[in-house]
Amino acid sequence: MQGKKFSFSGMVKESGFMSVYDGLSAGVLRQVFYASSRFGLFETFRDKLHEIRGKTDFASRVGVGAITGGIAAYLSCPMEVAVVRMSNDSSLPEAERRNYKGVVDTATRIVKEEGVATFWRGSTPFVQRAMMVGVFQVATLDQFKLMYAKYLNQKKDSIPNVFSAAMTSGLLYSIATMPLEASKNRMASQKADTTTGKLPYKGTLQTIRKVTAEEGFLALYNGFLPYYLRCGGHTVTMFIFVQMIRDYYSTHRA
Fold first, then answer.
1. Separation in Å, CA 155 to CA 103, 148, 160, 199, 248
2. Which of 247, 212, 58 has the alpha carbon at shortest distance from 135?
3. What's the Cα-to-Cα distance from 120 to each of 73, 80, 195, rounded to whole Å?
4. In angstroms, rounded to a whole number, what is the distance separating the alpha carbons of residues 34 and 196?
């Protein structure tokens, strides 16, 4: 798919159906570190701030969501780089592929061939994206649950209430973070120019400007539908399971 407009059918036709699961092992490990720490830190920091301030308003949710999202992203950068490398490898021309065998092989080869610091190449857009995710996904979820409970007469924290709020939060954060996701992917998977030895992408804004100038701004939204299906599906699944665990705990605790 290198140099071509992305399409799901084209990817399957060119690389096979199982190519949609490239990088799955690294993706699962990333979620263990990233999603769990992001959500856990958010609730811990939010509750602690509530103890200090005596209230929890939308502004505090936004601030806490941004900070905890950034912390979680920085901690999970190595897994994020492994996901991008494994997922994008099959899209490269055959001569340029790294042919990673798995997440352990990917991590080991990156350390040996490029150095540990490579794991944090592209960390800036990843952290920035995660801060926005913390705001648009986690922080707005509470707000949308309250809004839907009020205007749609849903019972707060019921499954329909969580589903509606999660889908809305997922849509907002997909729109807001797609340019940063595209920048992060390009920075994490880039190779140095064979003549100059320089990397084409140096920072978030530079990457966005370069892509916009050369390919148009909408190029940053290539693949938006699968990105939203991933973000919305992940948001809904995560928060519904969290709510089910909470309900179970509330019902069965001593």
1. 42, 9, 8, 52, 17
2. 58
3. 10, 9, 24
4. 36
121 vs 9: which has the higher pLDDT: 121
Backbone angles phi, psi at 29, to 5 degrees: -65, -35
**Structure-block tokens of residue 252:** 């069965």
The mean per-residue pLDDT over the stretch 6-16 comes to 61
The three-point CA angle 73-106-211 to 5° equals 60
The CA-CA-CA angle for residues 118, 119, 122, to 5°, reads 80
Give the span between the Cα atoms of 74 and 63, in whole angstroms.
17
CB 126 within 8 A of CB 62: no
Helix, strand or coil for residue 98?
coil
Contact 45, 64 (CB under 8 A): yes
